[in-house]
Amino acid sequence: MELRTLRYFVAVAEERHFGRAAARLHMSQPPLSRAIKQLEAQVGALLFTRSPTGVTLTSVGTVLLDEARALLEHADRVRVRVSAAAGVTTINVGILGDGTDPGAARLAAAYRRRHPGIDIHIRDTDLTDPTCGLRAGLVDVALTRAPFDETALTLRELRRDPVGVVLRADDPLARRGELSLAELRDRRWFQFPRDTDRAWQSYWNGGRPRQGPVVRAVHECLQAVLWNGTVGLAPLGHDLPAELTVVPLTDMAPSRVVAVWNEGDTNPLIRSFIEIATAAYHH
After folding, report:
1. For a surface tag, which of 95, 198, 208, 242 has the fewest beta carbons within 10 Å of its beta carbon?
2. In sequence order, what DSSP letters do the residues of 22-60 get, joined into one string?
3. For residue range 121-177, what is the model confidence (pLDDT) as tens digits?
4. pTM to 2 decimals?
5. What is the DSSP string of 94-163?
């Protein structure tokens, strides 16, 4: 069994869907389906039960998943040890937003267990650069949120978070169970600086131009809401001061948590980071 085929198998098993797995692997679905069928022929048994909505593991597939993960982890360790022997012993990671995300905490613990001899340098960035310094060459890989300009970058989606609008607790709309973007059209929204990535700015403004104060960091966003009655968007589930609240939006696309790295970068530390991140966020 080739390691590449096992990576394909693990992706399908974790995504439970050939289409999503193909997108994650940056390939089309037909060759992925063929690779899995060839693997099933090698094993001599079906690995997945297929249905119109996706796939589930068979008993044989469940056994292979455990073994495949162990083999891939070992292969990653080999690559990293060889790279360390060649002098590659540091990975620079950019992080945007909430560093207390449980997915990020699980990732940090798992990466340290897997690669205790690697130095991990963290660059915490504000909201003006969704690539966390990746385009500027300041980091090797970033944990961030999409959307943004993906030119020459590779993304791995880790999770999708529903989004709500942040309001003062005494705002008349704060008592609502849910809201739509249309109900916020006359409000002032916080803005990012003029040269911020356009796709990023548009998403956090609900897809249309807005007026309001310019902010660069999460705490500035919250202060703009608190002091000026400005509104803005935020993923649900984050802790807020008692004076603020978040109301779910019914017509807002989820915020995608992603890992992103430079297209074509073959650094084994990055490959291992991406695989560990995927497992940590799918926990």
Report:
1. 242
2. HHHHTS-HHHHHHHHHHHHHHHTS--EEEETTEEEE-HH
3. 999 888 999 999 998 889 999 999 999 999 999 999 999 999 999 999 999 999 999
4. 0.74
5. EEES-TT-HHHHHHHHHHHHH-TTSEEEEEEE-TT-TTTTTTTTS-SEEEEEE-S--TTEEEEEEEEE-E
